[in-house]
Amino acid sequence: MIIMITGTRTGVGRALAEHFLDSGHEVVGCGRKPATLDHPKYRHYQVDLTETDRTRAMFREVRQEYGHLDALINNAGTSTMNHFMTTPDEVTRKIFDLNFFAVLNCCREAVKLLRKSDETAPAILNVSTVAVPWALDGHLAYSASKSAVEQLVRVMSKELAAFGIRVNALGLPPVRTVLTRTVAQPKIDALIARQAIPRMCTMSDIVGPVEFLIGRRSAFITGETVFLGGVH
Ligand SMILES: NC(=O)c1ccc[n+]([C@@H]2O[C@H](COP(=O)([O-])OP(=O)(O)OC[C@H]3O[C@@H](n4cnc5c(N)ncnc54)[C@H](OP(=O)(O)O)[C@@H]3O)[C@@H](O)[C@H]2O)c1
Hints:
The protein is of the alpha/beta class. It has helices spanning 11-22, 52-66, 89-114, 140-161, 185-194, 203-214, and strands at residues 2-6, 26-31, 42-46, 71-74, 123-129, 166-172, 225-227.
């Protein structure tokens, strides 16, 4: 498969890229900074996904180089922790620019390449967060942007069904990455205690569900957001 993963320089995106490369797939990744991965089947684009034209140019290059995509994983994302009263609109807009508008743009561009896939069930998978169902205080901008992504999944799954393209999301509980490094441990522990399976989510908890949701074994699943760890 040719799998595009956004935000492959660190964290979840990097772990996913390593997993799919180890499994023999071609991975196209991106980030604002240079690659941290070096593999013959890995191609890195240095791009800020909030720059719409630059992102479109990346997809044009992918089309020229690979001809098609079999899966898109919209992983790149950012967050902020602040009371909404002290969060400037500028900060909220920046979060939406990456977490929602860049995802929308990547989906639009990727559909043109996913339609050329020979896979039985080409897929888009978006990364969401427990901050949505748990309506976590201090995360208004972040959780609102990911709520928008979950709604995108529901609507887009219908609009793309005719093209044979599925759209789902994976909702993550806390994982140790750059994104969570400033979150105090007691706060992380309190979140973990709310999960049905009360332990820290690891990268190996994530790769299996991602592989399933972009693969042919989930060919009849679309429009869903699946949460890890038991989040209710
Ligand atoms: N970690 C958690 O506990 C957790 C929990 C729930 C959900 N999530 C979600 O999981 C996803 C991955 O998070 P993570 O924890 O792995 O974060 P991370 O370690 O901060 O990784 C984010 C990745 O996105 C890239 N990126 C950031 N801004 C970008 C931009 N404007 N354009 C292009 N690439 C950009 C970064 O590379 P550059 O710096 O090179 O741009 C990096 O590779 C996010 O969608 C996040 O919301 C994470």
